[in-house]
Design a protein that fits this description.
By secondary structure, this protein is an all-alpha fold. It has 12 helices and no strands. It has one domain (13-256).
Length: 258
């Protein structure tokens, strides 16, 4: 684990409140829609802590909340047979992405994050149907999509573009897709942790904040699961992605305009 060059007080009331809110909010999203903890927590953390620090803080909550999703379902053989090359490529791509992150301007990359979150939000609000790739093309496309996903994950902490979009396009049965995302998220989180630690971006204070984030994330998941039983998922997603769209615009403007 890296020495701690971070100048922000990790245990100030403001920092703790920010981390608690980020994971309570994103955990609630995950409880309602089954995904989105890094996607919705990272913009909040990046605004308050910085992009590099925010990516480090999401590691432990992402691992804890995705391991169970990866375990349940009994489709491991099917998932690894179909997505093996995708998962291997994600691992290598993540290391490349984190290496770029360690050597790049965090403000510029936060702007890139804003652009991708903007595109993802617009896509999610429009909900178009992604065409499924032909079976003969999938074996060649999977490692390309995995590598691209890993690079983006390592650089800006987002798995959704193109990872989740590609997995959705494969038209797997719903339960298999949910477990496949859990497996992919878990492997990505491990690869991201290894890349951050190897590049000196996972300090003791950030590890402590990341561990602290598990509690509000789990509380948020319980809240979200209860909301899911009483709330239209479609309306909830519309509201959430509208908020994410606003955050994405702010991150982009702050990096490239303001």
């Amino acid at each position: 684990m890296a020495a701690d060059p971070w100048t922000v007080d990790p245990w100030s009331a403001a920092t703790i409140a920010l981390v608690a809110f980020a994971f309570l909010f994103s955990g609630t999203v995950k409880g309602v829609v089954g995904a989105g903890l890094p996607t919705f927590s990272l913009p909040i953390l990046a605004l308050g802590l910085g992009l590099k620090e925010g990516i480090a803080v999401i590691i432990i909550p992402a691992l804890i909340t995705n391991v169970w999703q990866a375990i349940v379902g009994g489709q491991h053989a099917v998932i690894f047979r179909r997505l093996g090359s995708f998962l291997v490529a994600v691992t290598f791509g993540t290391w490349i992405g984190v290496t770029i992150l360690a050597r790049s301007d965090a403000l510029f990359l936060s702007g890139i994050l804003g652009v991708f979150l903007f595109l993802y939000s617009v896509f999610s609000l429009a909900t178009p149907q992604i065409p499924a790739p032909p079976a003969r093309v999938e074996k060649y496309l999977s490692p390309v999509m995995g590598g691209a996903t890993g690079v983006m994950l390592g650089m800006i902490g987002s798995f959704f573009v193109p990872g989740v979009l590609y997995l959705q396009a494969l038209r797997m049965p719903r339960d298999t897709l949910v477990q496949a995302m859990g497996v992919a998220f878990t492997i990505c989180s491990l690869a991201l942790w290894a890349g951050l630690a190897g590049n000196g971006l996972f300090s003791a204070s950030l590890a402590g904040l990341s561990a602290f984030g598990v509690v509000p994330a789990l509380i948020g998941m319980v809240i979200g699961q209860r909301l899911r039983r009483n709330l239209s998922e479609h309306r909830f997603r519309q509201a959430l992605f509208s908020v994410l769209l606003i955050v994405a615009v702010y991150l982009t403007l702050r990096a490239f305009v303001l």
